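Example S7 (structure tokens).
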């Protein structure tokens, strides 16, 4: 491809709305063009990276025995009503009406369509196991689209669905996809780690996310350096830190004035006790109903854990008016005598002498025992607090480390969730009807493209791994008007393309300095420079973008040297 004919436009400055390095670089290198927040077009350079990632995904899915299909993006809402997810998806699902006033959705994911596809085609155990996949555009009305391709309203996903007769067979299918994911990310030049994950609105009981570690990542990941336990913060199990107030108090419960104390720390200071001995009481509204949640004073509530415990689809913190109505004034609420259900973190089971808000402005109750006091009714105990760095590993007890990660893939064991609700059955070898066991597996293909740029860059621009570089070679013609230079460039381009190496020829009438800067910014794996001066010196200069290593070779030997370098990268 010739730069002069491709409309690739690089930018000098970072776009104002770009916060993270990969977003800045993808925009500056002219890979993406913004339509509006959460909607991006791919330039000829961007689409090439996308296609190269898609190709790796396809090859590894095919190798793992999955069959490619293509579903429609437009889906009837009736499928979602059948699976029971129409309500759960809430506002994140784009809905529209066709001309007959039937409600349709733009697919945010395809479990329902995949199950419907299978029940249309499959009726015998002989047709299973089967794994199908597609690479397709998905639509999600994200609350905060941001970070370029990382969180879009429209994005490219590879989604796969496995169907097996037994849960043991389903475990085998799951493992095949898990292994394929490791190969895919490795081939993309990405260092991605599987971690235990929450299943969210997709459902099921077991899942792993594949995380690319990066300070800009939106997910917290807890990792044990000793036994290598790794889990998303939304999922990580918390081992309660021990405390000195694990015995019931000898003193009776008492109401104490704590004027002006509205936070845990202020209450602890007023009472002269450690802040972890004060219970943090919060009011949430879960699917329209208020509930109270209790965690230890030093802990933070982990909302996904609460959502899981309650089985709620919509969960938000109650506003001050609702809170005041059901539990007293903000800053002084507590569980004594309230009429709404109270859920408590299991770390409070060991805390038998704690202080709680009295439900009255400016008062707390000390020497409270949540396990025994008759007027404190705990509807359920659960693991509700966020795990933080330094907490004990749930497997081996060593202190955990907290890192940040970008979720590029997610694999789920779904069990019978969709096959049962959508009545997909097959006849087994005895003629008995059985419900197949399902798994689903997603890769954010477009997010992966940007995650590669997030992990592979330097001060000058992107450093694409050879497998996904928009072009393997950027061929810079420093003197396009010079006959000898342009014929050497043409010869090199032809020779490379003939051997399957893709080349971007920078033939623009620009100064060499600009061409060098742009080549570094775009970040093709090799830069090859041809100019009147290099020809005088005996040939062309080949430079490895990643290491800066350079080689001066005669024009005739350049194709072989380029192929040799690419094979080793
Ligand atoms: P997240 O937690 O980041 O919102 P998710 O868990 O909702 O993602 P899944 O339903 O697991 O996403 O989708 C599979 C993959 O699709 C994710 O692992 C991620 O890589 C990608 N993905 C999800 N939402 C988006 C989005 N809005 N923009 C780009 N990629 C996305
Ligand atoms: Mg996910």
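Recovered sequence:
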């Amino acid at each position: 491809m010739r730069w002069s004919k491709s409309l690739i436009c690089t930018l000098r400055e970072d776009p104002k709305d770009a916060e993270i390095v990969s977003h800045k670089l993808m925009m500056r290198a002219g890979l993406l063009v913004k339509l509006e927040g959460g909607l991006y077009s791919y330039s000829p350079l961007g689409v090439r990276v996308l296609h190269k990632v898609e190709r790796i995904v396809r090859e590894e899915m095919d190798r793992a025995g999955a069959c490619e299909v293509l579903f429609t993006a437009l889906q009837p809402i009736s499928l979602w009503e059948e699976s029971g997810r129409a309500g759960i998806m809430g506002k994140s699902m784009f809905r529209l009406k066709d001309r007959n006033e039937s409600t349709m959705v733009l697919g945010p994911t395809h479990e329902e369509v995949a199950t419907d596809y299978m029940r249309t085609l499959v009726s015998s155990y002989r047709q299973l196991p089967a794994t199908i996949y597609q690479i397709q555009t998905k639509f999600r009305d994200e609350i905060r689209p941001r970070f370029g391709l990382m969180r879009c309203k429209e994005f490219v996903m590879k989604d796969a669905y496995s169907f097996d007769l037994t849960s043991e067979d389903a475990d085998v299918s799951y493992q095949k996809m898990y292994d394929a994911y490791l190969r895919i990310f490795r081939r993309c030049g990405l260092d991605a780690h599987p971690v235990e994950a929450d299943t969210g609105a997709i459902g099921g009981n077991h899942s792993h996310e594949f995380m690319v570690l990066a300070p800009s990542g939106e997910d917290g990941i807890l990792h044990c350096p000793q036994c290598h336990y790794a889990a998303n913060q939304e999922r990580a199990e918390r081992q309660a830190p021990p405390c000195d107030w694990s015995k019931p108090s000898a003193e009776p419960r008492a109401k104490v004035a704590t004027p002006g104390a509205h936070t845990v720390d202020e209450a602890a200071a007023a009472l002269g006790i450690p802040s972890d001995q004060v219970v943090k009481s919060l009011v949430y509204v879960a699917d329209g109903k208020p509930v109270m949640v209790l965690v230890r004073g030093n802990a933070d509530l982990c909302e996904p854990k609460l959502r899981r415990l309650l089985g709620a689809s919509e969960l938000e913190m109650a506003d001050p008016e609702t809170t005041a109505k059901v539990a007293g004034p903000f800053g002084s609420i507590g569980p004594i005598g309230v009429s709404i259900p109270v859920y408590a973190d299991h770390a409070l089971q060991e805390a038998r002498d704690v202080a709680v808000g009295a439900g009255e402005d400016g008062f707390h109750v000390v020497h409270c025992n949540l396990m025994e006091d008759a007027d404190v009714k705990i509807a359920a105990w659960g693991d509700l607090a966020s795990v933080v760095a330094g907490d004990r590993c749930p497997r081996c007890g060593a202190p955990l480390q907290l890192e940040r990660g970008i979720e590029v893939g997610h694999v789920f064991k779904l069990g019978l969730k969709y096959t049962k609700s959508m009545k997909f059955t097959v006849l087994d070898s005895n003629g008995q009807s059985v419900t197949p066991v399902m798994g689903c597996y997603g890769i954010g293909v477009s997010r992966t493209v940007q995650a590669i740029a997030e992990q592979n860059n330097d001060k000058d621009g992107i450093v694409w791994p050879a497998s996904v570089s928009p072009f393997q070679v950027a061929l810079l013609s420093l003197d396009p008007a010079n006959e000898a230079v342009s014929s050497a460039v043409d010869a090199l381009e032809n020779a490379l393309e003939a051997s399957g190496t893709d080349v971007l020829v920078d033939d623009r009438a620009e100064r060499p300095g600009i061409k060098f800067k742009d080549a570094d910014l775009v970040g093709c794996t090799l830069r090859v420079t041809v100019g009147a001066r290099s020809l005088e010196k005996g040939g062309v200069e080949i430079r490895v973008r990643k290491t800066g290593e350079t080689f001066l070779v005669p024009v005739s030997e350049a194709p072989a040297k380029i192929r040799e370098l690419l094979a080793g990268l």
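Notes on this example. The longest helix spans residues 167-187.
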